[in-house]
Amino acid sequence: MSYTDMEQYWIWLSSVEGIGPKRFYQLLSIYEDARSVWDALGASGAPDGMKFLGRPTMQALRDARDEGYFYRLFDQLERLEIRAVTRISEGYPARLTSIYDPPPTLHVRGACDLDAERMIAVVGSRRCTRDGQRAAREIARGLAEADVTVVSGMARGIDTHAHEGALSAGGHTIAVLGCGVDVCYPPENEGLLRQILDTGGAVLSEYTPGTLPLPGNFPQRNRIISGLCEGVLLVEGAKKSGAMITVNCALEQGRDVFAVPGSLYSPLSAAPNRMIVDGAAPVLSPWEILEYYHWARRPEVSDANPHRELPLDPEEETLVAPLREQELSFEELVEITGFSAQKLNSHLTMLELRGIIVKVPGGMYRAYL
Predict the structure, then answer these.
(1) Is the pTM of the predicted complex or chain greater than 0.70?
(2) 285 and 146 share a domain?
(3) Residue-wise over 299-331: b if at least 16 C-beta within 10 A, else e?
(4) Of 55, 107, 146, 297, which sees the most CB atoms within 10 A?
């Protein structure tokens, strides 16, 4: 990928260890541009305008003012097929320009449009319930079917299920990482990362390639998840859930906040329930979000018989009814229905073929109806 001279120096300055967004923009407020920072470092003595950096960062900046460092930086980007999108580049997401401390440079893998009109973040607890997993997948799937790009952080739990839901609809999804885009975290999501890229999605980070997933990186990256989007959906989270950092970022940025309600007695429903009390829009399906933005209109279904198009016989209804409420394993279904393993397996197979139920990761079953 080719860059202008100004972009190259911008990318260089933002890559230096210790130069986060605050220090980056402070340097640019003192010097004309990133090239001027490079030139000032070439003069003898310590530039007065850089004394606020402190000794370690100042030394890192001096070490980086090196043609070899410069060459290796851009060689690495090309070799790893990473494009650097700076705030002065075409393609930088317009929504991010208005947030507090917008990332100077985004490192991107994948071809997804970062500035799409329809973008919603889906976040929640890493230790989610089956209902939370199902809600994240089904809502994300419904959004993706309406051409909404689903944004999340590829963390364990709700994030992973949101990405998977969007992918199951053949839609686009963007993962915002708290590490370099060449580092997969959590490691078990390597297949998910590859699927995101193979289906036209994107993985992005403000951190330079090779950056490890340090704990302090994740709260920082959450402002990007919310900043990219029109709104943020909180699926599950305890009172002090990390997902609330993203929600708070959304509120500070003037983004819309949605929440999936849950049991009064479930600790993981504490945060979304509180958000609803405080004014967040409750979400029971993708339609609450789609209709809020006038992105789609839900099909009319008769209240008297909402499942009229797929009639079930009594035994099938016995099986499907509990799967409408939660995901269940084969063994749990044997216990609930009283069917033999052979009969249950036969019903499951036929209902899967008819598209009424689906088998999900973990060997669980759930109903579409």
Answers:
(1) yes
(2) yes
(3) eeeeeeeeeeeeebeeebebbbebbeeebbeee
(4) 107
Residue 284 tokens read as 């029971």
* 158 located within any domain: yes
pLDDT for 44: 64
Tell me how far CA of residue 296 lies from CA of 186, 286, 288, in angstroms: 34, 10, 10
pLDDT of residue 166: 96
Q: What is the structure's pLDDT at 306?
A: 47
In a domain, 351, yes or no: yes
Within this chain, do residues 74 and 12 fall inside the same structural domain, yes or no? yes
- Using alpha carbons, select from 302, 311, 301, 237 the residue that is nearest to residue 272: 237
Q: What are phi and psi of 331, to 5 degrees?
A: -65, -40
Residue 347 sits in a domain whose CATH number is 1.10.10.10
SS3 content of the chain, % helix, strand, coil (to 5): 45, 15, 40
272 lies in which domain range? Answer: 119-292
3-state secondary structure of 300: coil
325 and 176 together in one domain: no
User: What is the pLDDT at residue 326?
Assistant: 86
Residue entry with tokens 């002090």:
240
In a domain, 358, yes or no: yes
Together in a domain, 162 and 64: no
Cα–Cα distance between 316 and 366 in angstroms, integer? 13
Residue 212 region by backbone torsions, left for phi larger than 0, else alpha for psi between -120 and 50, else beta: beta
- Burial of 205: CB neighbours in 10 Å, binned 0-12, 13-18, 19+: buried
Cα separation, 15 vs 151, whole angstroms: 24
Q: In a 3-state reduction of DSSP, which class is residue 330?
A: helix
Mean pLDDT, consecutive 10-residue stretches, the chain (369 aa), reads 93 95 94 92 75 90 93 96 95 94 97 94 94 92 96 97 96 97 96 96 97 94 97 93 92 96 91 94 94 87 46 88 90 93 89 80 78
Q: Say if CB 197 and CB 191 are below 8 A apart.
A: no
Report if residue 354 sits inside a domain. Answer: yes
Residues 363 and 260 in one domain: no
Structural domains of the chain, count: 3
pLDDT at 304: 43
